[in-house]
Specification:
This protein has helices spanning 3-16, 25-29, 45-61, 69-82, 84-97. Helix 4 (69-82) packs across helix 5 (84-97). It is built from five helices and no strands. The chain starts with a helix and ends in a 7-residue tail after the last helix. InterPro entries: TAT_signal. Residues 10-31 have a biased composition (Low complexity). Residues 1-34 are annotated as: Disordered.
């Protein structure tokens, strides 16, 4: 890929992310991240059981061979970004639960 094209793509990626293009020309020439990012979610045994049951029921309802838990999280993220009512429902639940279950 030509250096000008790389710089243009980096500037676009920065603009989409809400930032600005890097001041360092070499950094601007680097391609934006394209590899997936792995995220780990720890669920209680009951949460995991509920997720598995929901996936199994949804798989049957939609006549799909499998509904993966990761796809449920991806769908929820997509809905949170595009549907203000879903985003608000998630915010309400986070407020109710304290927003984080991480141990300090």
């Amino acid at each position: 890929m030509a250096p000008d094209r790389r710089a243009d793509l980096a500037a676009r990626a920065a603009a989409v992310a809400g930032g600005t293009a890097p001041a360092d020309p070499e950094a601007a020439a680097r391609a934006p991240r394209t590899r997936p990012v792995r995220v780990t979610v720890e669920l209680s045994p009951m949460e995991h059981k509920a997720l598995r049951q929901w996936c199994a029921q949804t798989s049957a309802d939609l006549d799909l061979p499998l509904v993966a838990g990761a796809e449920v999280f991806r769908a929820l993220l997509s809905l949170m970004r595009t549907d203000p009512a879903v985003a608000e429902a998630v915010r309400t639940e986070l407020n109710r639960t304290g927003g984080s279950r991480r141990r300090h």
